[in-house]
Amino acid sequence: MMDVLATIIQSQPIAPPQPLYTDNATIWHHMAGALRESLFRVLSLLIAVLPGILAFFVAFMVFTLIGMAISAILRKGLSLLRFDDRLSHYRDSGTWTPTSSPTEIVARSSFWGCVLLGLLIGVSAFDASYATAATLPISLLPYLTHAVGAIFLLIAGTLVARFLARSVLIGAVNAQLQYARILSLGVKWLVLVLTAAMVLEHLEIGGVVVSLAFGILFGGIVLTLSLAVGLGSRDLVSRSLESHVGSGDRGAEVLPTPINKPDQIRHF
Amino acid sequence: MATTNLIDESNSEQTQVRGSVLVLLPASDPARLQPVLERLASALPAEELVVAVPGEIPNEVNGPVKVIAAPPSSTTWTLTARDFVTAQDMAKTCAVQTLLILGPEAESLSPAGIRDLAITVQTTSTDLAIPRYVLPPGAGLVNSAILYPLSRSLFSTRIRFPLPIDLGLSMPMAERLANIAQRLVSANQGDSPLWVVNEAAVAGRATEEIDAGTRELPQPKDSGLNVILPLVTASLFSDIEGKAAFWQRARITPPAARHWPSMSRAPSESAADVSSMIQAFRIANTNLQEIWSLILPPNSMLGLKRLARVEGDAFRMPDQLWARVVFDFLIAYRLRTLNRGHLLGALVPLYLGWVAGHINSIVAGGDPERHIEALATAFETDKAYLVSRWRWPDRFNP
User: Fold this and answer.
1) DSSP count for chain B of H helices, then E strands
2) Which of A143, A162, B77, B207 could form a disulfide with B218 if both were Cys (CB 3.0 to 4.6 A apart)?
3) Is residue B247 assigned to a domain?
4) Domain identity same for B70 and B175
5) Is B104:B173 a contact under the CB 8 Å cutoff?
6) B135/B284 same-domain check
7) Lowest-pLDDT range, A137-141, A211-215, B256-260?
8) Domain annotation covers residue B13
């Protein structure tokens, strides 16, 4: 038995322990190969989408130039036709009074319309080339459209905030409220905070945290303004209520001015 | 007893009413209509007179005057475009040569004033007869501050009330005004006032001012200054903008034809009102600097800052400063420097500042009419400033 074991052991010579790696060049070779492959993929993707990017910029530039030309032609043509003067005879100026003249509004609208069209065509061209490229887990195009929408939201919100702030300021000053400026700033920041929340939600940033923070901030601003108005203008509110109650008792639409009160100051 | 002569407009083909003077009255209670008819009957011969009353003719009406029904009208505190269209239609139906339009509270007009309005148009070459009322010095302040000085400096006319509540018209003038009014009605602006004096000046029509004595001026339902002042100034500024080719030419205002009676007693309860107006001006000076600086040049801003520091009875807005302010607002209205609603809202506290100074000058013993005339002269003197800024808005800005 011992002889058999000795024979088995002797027939299998004991190999010396081998090191963990025997060939350094092989590992570096694999790494280089992996890097080359990834570089190749990225470059392939870039080469695939590069025409799309170029098409985007070309479409954008071409339509911007077309928009500039159309805007200039419209501005010149409408000025020659005296469009503003003709429109002023027929426009109801009591409700909406824009800052710019109608000719300017038409010219600017046509320009920005062409720019928007160029943007859409460019994005569409980019999308077409992107679809044929190598796949990536991240989808860029939908996020790009969300970003454009967010920019428009931001611009619109800023304009509305500025308009409302000015309206409130002038109204509060004419109502002789001492804190007119605070009221105006409060309204402006209310609208700006609302706009910011809408933009972030549109970009899908923050999620519930943004909604919650907006709710707390908005509620705080509203509460502050309510306290300021309620505590600071009690006399104004009571005077306003008294005048409404008094006018409700009078049936006539036109208020007669008694001639035997010559000491009264009357603006009309 | 004289019987009522009520003519239904629907039977006009069979019983066509003719006369030489048509009087268009506003809608009012039957109880207030009768005194007006009595005044008209005492002022003008009944056989020549036709009175048009909006809506149904009340049964209580009696007298020698012929009364016909007119289309319903909305009672306002000033004559609107719709009133002129209605007046012209009625005048054509009745084939009259002279038209009188009377506003609310017409029962307070003197018969002599009504008679003069009609006779001036009937017997002379006058196309437009405007009454001049004798009002307390604290009344009609918007007219004194803005309407009269602007109208006089730009259209070279001395009509004291360029936005009248009563007037007399010849048929050619009535037709012209109705054509203009029809455009406004078509554009859904039927409730806008019509600037008859400006239209007459542009058309080269003869205008005459009539001494109408005292009158109760109707006040608007929305009596807030913050609503009515922007409305009236927007209408006037639009009218001036449309007639720029006319008023930019140099013209000489005719001298005053006669001395007009006036009241000079200061409002006795004015102290509280004046301090309130000064307070409003100061609040605006603190809060509206940013907006005013978009409209007014640095000189005017400096003048307003200095004025805000003046206390009590010494508070007076210089005439030239107020003239420049009004002209700059007119230019900003045309250039659309900012939203027009905001622009005219920002004018209200400046107007209150002027009113406070005007009342202070009356309380100090000054003649209010003399002050208004001096103000109008300041507007005339500074007309060149307006013309320059109108033509070169970017290049000329002192």
Assistant:
1) 16, 8
2) B77
3) no
4) yes
5) no
6) no
7) A137-141
8) yes
A256 to B218: CB separation less than 8 angstroms, yes or no: yes
How does residue B39 score in pLDDT terms, banded at 50, 70 and 90? confident
For A158, A160, A225, the CA distances from A188, given in Å and listed in that order, are: 9, 9, 12
Total domains in the fold of chain B: 2
A255 to chain B: which residues are within 8 Å by CB?
A: 218-221, 223
Q: How many separate helices (H) and strands (E) can be counted in chain A?
A: 8, 0
**Please, what is the average pLDDT of chain A?**
78
Mutation site for A-interface testing, chosen from B146, B221, B240, B283 by largest number of A Cβ within 10 Å: B283
Does B225 sit within 8 Å of A169, measured CB to CB?
A: no
What pLDDT shows up at residue A24?
59
What pLDDT, on a 0 to 100 scale, did the predictor assign at position B216?
Answer: 82
Residue A10: what pLDDT? 59
Q: How far apart are CA B136 and CA B175, in angstroms?
A: 34
Per-window interface: A 146-165 vs B, CB < 8 A = 163
Contact A169 B143 (CB under 8 A): no
Yes or no: say if B79 and B193 are a contact pair by the CB < 8 Å rule.
yes
* Rounded-to-10 torsion of CA B149, B151, B153, B156: -130
CATH number of the domain to which B96 belongs? 3.90.550.10
Q: Provide ipTM, 2 decimals.
A: 0.84
Contacts of B279 in chain A (CB under 8 A): 176
What pLDDT is attached to residue A137?
43
Q: Please identify, among B188, B218, B248, the residue that sits at the C-terminal boundary of a domain.
A: B218
Range of the domain at B386: 270-391
The model's pTM is 0.78
- Spell out the domain ranges in chain A: 30-85+101-136, 138-233
pLDDT of residue A228: 74
Mean pLDDT in residue range B256-277: 70
Report if residue B214 sits inside a domain: yes
Burial of B165 (0-12, 13-18, 19+ CB in 10 A): buried
